[in-house]
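Letters spell out the chain; backbone shape is given numerically. Take this protein:
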Amino acid sequence: MANSLSFLLALSLLAFSPLCFCDKTPGGYLYPQFYDRSCPRAKEIVKSVVAKAVARETRMAASLLRLHFHDCFVKGCDASLLLDSSQNIITEKRSVPNQNSARGFEVIDEIKSALEKECPSTVSCADILALAARDSTVLTGGPNWEVPLGRRDSRGASLSGSNSNIPAPNNTFQTILTKFKLKKLDIVDLVALSGSHTIGNARCTSFRQRLYNQSGNGLADFTLDQSYAGQLRTRCPRSGGDQNLFVMDFVSPTKFDNNYFKNLLASKGLLNSDEVLVTKSQVSKQLVQQYAENNELFFKQFAKSMVKMGNISPITGSRGEIRKSCRKVNS
């Protein structure tokens, strides 16, 4: 098992050569230098706005990282999540995973506005999401990576896709893994990307069942440390307090590091979807153990997996559009 896991990790780490982060897609390539001539200051502008937003509110880093994830898992990394409802569009913002939860849209608007002044109709909202996710990770102490660019924006959204494709906190391990595999992501990507829960918050409603009625028998989740569960119950009652926020990594909640994995091994993962990584699969548990022991290994794999996720079904070439406003399609 150890040998096969090492081989799996090696394959995953080699999946994207550090010499070229190019990815061939139907109709074109994604590559980091995409805007070097058309909008040379694009990356600098994105980073500047993100840095100011995170300085105002540290939680915003996790929110922007999550937007990229929730966008890519629906119709691909095409900024469909950012579209508001209109005559022909039902917004993904109304889906169960996003309603009263997804946030940071005003930061994306601020970035887009600055980019439109600098180089009109050039930088896509989809690429803004990818860059903002990377910058948010770096600003909180996480790894850096080159972001392949050249995505274009969709002209539609999928409320049903948002409801069905995004992994939920109460999904089984197999359901979560299946949702990743459908996007050509594997178990290594699943565990590494789950590590983004080292920053940010979760609502009481996302994990309440673990505290009171995990299996429908009126009992708490036995895989959750009972002392930790007791602390959580003080602010997450049986009813009410749905929107009360809890840090997902209680050791270093605003620092991007591997404490998330150490918490899982101590039975102190907040969400059911976190704890199943160590209770329902030996392969994922071994990955959790490796990342808990080796922060550098986690950082390297997280960067590789973020590039891989960012390459889910991008719109390139002449398809789609470059929106003038991320909230609506061009008229």
User: Anything to note?
Assistant: The longest strand covers residues 23-25. Residues 60-75 form the longest helix (16 residues). The radius of gyration is 19 Å. The chain has 14 helices and four strands.
